[in-house]
Every structure is written in structure tokens, then in C-alpha cells.
Amino acid sequence: MRFQIPESKLRYNLQETLRKCGYFQIQDYRSGQESFVKRLSNSQHYPRFHLYIDKKDNQYQFNLHLDQKQASYEGQKAHSGEYDDPVVKEEARRIKSLI
User: Fold this and answer.
1) Chain mean position to CA 63
2) Per residue in 9-57, pLDDT tens?
3) 80: number of CA atoms within 13 Å, CB side?
4) CA distance 28 to 94
5) What pTM did the predictor assign?
6) Given 8, 23, 45, 77, which is the most exposed site by the fewest CB atoms within 10 A?
7) CB–CB of 1/88 below 8 Å?
8) Are 65 and 74 in contact (CB under 8 A)?
9) What is the pLDDT of residue 79?
């Protein structure tokens, strides 16, 4: 699910804002790309919300999905992800309301 938030709406810097939303920053060791995740369980890595962010002009472009499990095959990025599921839409609404 994609959505935008103007930079001016953030009360804190992006990392602090997302930390307040329950997300922490990760870096893909293969690609070097940074993203943010929020685990749904304290004891398991999956399922988790996964958030990629780009900045264009004065807008943050959010790309949110729900990772159900880790990629099954070595070298593959494919996984069981939900992009427009009601749970993902609700999480996007939650993030917007906290910001």
C-alpha cells in the first residue's frame, strides 16, 4: 500500500517518528537498502509490517506491506506479502494518525 505524508507534518525527524510508531530501521545486507519493520510478535521475526520510504520534493512516499514469512529460496526476494489487505490499510491509517 502506497501513501504520502508531507515532510512538514512530522514533529520529529523521520527515524524518531517511525520509532514512535513502533518501527525500527533495518538494512538489507545484500542490496544495502534501508527500510523499517514492525514485528507483530515479540518472539518471531515474521509476520511483520515492512515499510520502504522515498522522499520526493517535500513528500515522504511510503510503501507498506505485511511480510508473512521470509523468502523461501536463496537469492529470491519473493515472499508471502500482503499489500492491499485490510490489515495493511488499517496500519497505514494508524501511522497517518500518529504523525
Assistant:
1) 7
2) 999 999 999 999 999 999 988 888 899 999 998 888 899 999 999 999 9
3) 7
4) 25
5) 0.84
6) 8
7) yes
8) no
9) 54
- Strands 59-67 and 2-6 turn out to be antiparallel
Which residue's entry shows cell 520502504? 52
Strands (E), 1-95: 2-6, 24-27, 34-39, 48-56, 59-67, 81-82
Q: What is the CA radius of gyration of the chain?
A: 14
Cell of 23: 518501527
Count the neighbouring beta carbons within 10 Å of the beta carbon of residue 86.
8
How many whole angstroms separate alpha carbon 90 and alpha carbon 99? Answer: 14
Give the C-alpha separation, 99 to 97, whole Å.
5
Rounded to 5°, angle at Cα 83 from 73 and 46 = 50
Contact partners, residue 67, CB within 8 Å, separation at least 6: 37, 46, 47, 48, 49, 50, 79, 80, 81
